[in-house]
Write a structure and sequence with these properties.
Helices cover 44% and strands 20% of the residues. It has 125 residues and is α/β, with parallel strands linked by helices. A 5-stranded parallel beta sheet has the order 2-1-3-4-5, with helices on both faces. It is globular. It starts with a strand and ends with a helix. The relative contact order is 0.19.
Length: 125
């Protein structure tokens, strides 16, 4: 069964950067999927059930906190690892991320090496 990583961000260049950072995992059978907003992310999560989600906090319509909360609390999906991505490093955001069930919190700009290492670790590659 192929593993899947979902990248959710409303900013094209961030999605591209994450895709470029993670593309070498495709050689190991990992499928990269992208979404541009929270609604799209939820649809993909329900349909594709990715193992790992990089989730932007600040998005129009449905923000990352809402998406994370929906996945972990309403859909009750606990086996998806959610990494919240945000430009804000405030403790309050981290606390809120923890409250909605985020597994990890990364601030932008992120270190591509760290993103790749974390992904390898989480997917057990």
């Amino acid at each position: 069964m192929s593993q899947k990583i979902l990248i959710v961000d409303d900013e094209f260049h961030i999605r591209l950067l994450l895709e470029q950072t993670l593309e070498e995992l495709e050689d190991q059978g990992v499928e990269l999927i992208t979404a541009t907003n929270g609604h799209e992310a939820l649809e993909i999560i329900k349909a594709e059930h990715p193992q790992l989600v990089f989730l932007d906090v600040m998005m129009p319509h449905l923000n990352g906190f809402d998406v994370c909360s929906t996945v972990k609390n309403e859909l009750n999906v606990q086996d998806i690892y959610i990494i919240m991505l945000t430009a804000k490093g405030q403790e309050l955001d981290k606390q809120k991320g923890a409250e909605v069930g985020a597994d990890l919190y990364m601030t932008k700009p992120f270190d591509p090496d760290e993103v790749l290492e974390k992904s390898i670790q989480i997917l057990g590659l």
